[in-house]
Amino acid sequence: MLDRLRLRRTSASAHVPVPSRLTVPVAIAVTLVVGLVAGGCGSSSSKSTASSATTPALSKPQFLAEGNAICRQGNQRLTAAQNKVFGHNQPSPAQVIAYVTNTFAPEIQSQISALRALGAPSGGRATVTTMLNLAQADLNRVKRDPALLAGSSSPFANFAKLAHPYGLTGCAANS
Description:
- The structure is a single chain.
- By secondary structure, the protein is mainly alpha-helical.
- Helix content is 62%, strand content 0%.
- It contains 6 helices and no strands.
- The protein has helices spanning 24-40, 46-54, 60-86, 93-118, 125-144, 157-166.
- It starts with 23 loop residues before the first helix and ends in a 9-residue tail after the last helix.
- Residues 1-53 have low confidence and may be disordered.
């Protein structure tokens, strides 16, 4: 969703990056990672453990089909929200921070939670857990520093390096 944010310096604050344009590939990547990261958070109460123990695990193809659908739908929602909030205007740093805080991070967290709720395919638990933990770590970095979205590379590249070869290509697209 956020391809790149171009930075410009203002005379009042020479070190404050101001994004000039949000692009679709970076936004999609960020959306996916945030969504994956969100799934990594939460409690591990006995209730959730019990439900995952009684729920049959999805096959890897089922997990990938449902996981990629979760990411694609979340990315569509983020693209629509980004267009509504920014349109073709150059957002201020405050607008970017508000967008990340109020829209982007919650949507990505939702995607991560939904992916976790699917349950990992048998034989893939360690890989899926590692992927979702990477997504959460990447999201946490973006939440701390929204200007990371302005970089030339995806802030969710760590997640994508593991997720894409596994088959979750709809998440953190173009990273």
